[in-house]
Amino acid sequence: MTKLAAQHPQFSRRTAIQAGSIGLLGLGMNHLSALQAADSAGKVRKAKSVIYIFLSGGLAQQDSFDPKPDAPENVRGEFKAINTKTPGVHVSEHLPLLAARSDKWAVVRSLTHPYNEHSQGHMVMLSGRSPMPVGFNPSKPMPGDWPSMAAITSDVLRPTNNLPPAVVLPERLIHRTGRVIPGQFAGLMGPKREPWFISASPFNGKTYGAYPEYEFHHETGKADSQLSFQAPNLALPEGLSQESFANRQHLRRLLDGQRGELEQAAGVQQFDRFRQSAISLLSEPSTQAAFDVTRAPEKLQDAYGRNSFGRSLLMARQLVEAGVSLVQVNLGNNEAWDTHQSIFPNLKNFLLPPTDKGVSALLDDLEARGLLDDTLIVMAGEFGRTPRVFGLSATRLPGRDHWGAVQSVFFAGGGVKGGTVIGSSDRIGGYPHNDPQTPEQMAATIYSSLGIPPVAHWRDESDRPHHIYHADPIPGLLS
């Protein structure tokens, strides 16, 4: 099969028979768990969970996982390339902890799509679909948008341990202007099938970076506001005792009465679908504990970093351990990685250090708990950055512009072959040099790792079926 988004997987006779059996039995997509070992079994190693780390704004590939030390100065930038644990593989000098763990991760240096605008890039990299949906509006989400990978996962997989199949944290992606960024919602699936948004960082659009330790402002440098990462409020509503909680009808009416407030506070529009899960979650201390990182051991909090990046990643680990299938972790709101200006001080001082520390701690923590082989980690932004560094004005330090033509995507765990580099960019990091990969292939890797078979589909609000897969998984990435 080619890599073109228009192509779809060819299903075997066995898979077709299984799909027909689903229809004959009248089973819907909520029964997909029984098919998680369908045709793709044996072809791609399965993870039980996926953590998708999203770097809104776009990470510069030359200044992170694809340095160009032999390129001209206005391409290679200010950072030095350092050796990793893998011979011949180099990364930025500001990723020393990940460099020491390169045997646990792989990098795809040739992922490409045609868009240089934030909203289009978010749509592509959060949905795994390259064509823009009909009626796409870069200024706001639209009903006709492609559903995000989190929404699709939430729709086709079953809840586990009273937790939803997919969670997005620590907040929705909102620009400081108030623009809600499209691509992160259910779109064509309808508002009742949104992924579960957890609000542990209710400062949408008010901050950049890993506050409070690494908070900064693109123009003025380090910010001085006192923000704090919060454990989500999952307590029983005020005035509701355990005795009255036993009366499910009473609780149903109470929750329905708070629907508007809950949706506004947490962005959970699919409350009907998860009502019973929410009821169980509100009453189960062990389930609530999966969301509270402030009570984790002190040494573990220190290892991840006591900031919004580290605590978001720690919460993601706790959630996959508790049974969540896919956790999307937004490392930085307000397009924090959008380094048009001051790229080198902002990456060096505010963005790369907490990411290097937090992701390294995540790898160590998952491995120590025996979860790394069962958890696929993917880290990407909506695009890369321009090959050449430019200066905006005499008063602003140099930066890089948006660049969809190529970016580096980080993979670890879940059967990933550590120390692997797939594809390459050209000598200035501008375009794929060989083995280009697409967002569709990245999405297929995620879905396949979760055990979602190629025959799977989702239905829009008009009950029309849509393919989940639009390409094969990235070859050579997983063992």
TrEMBL record:
It holds the Pfam family DUF1501. This is DUF1501 domain-containing protein. It comes from Anatilimnocola aggregata.
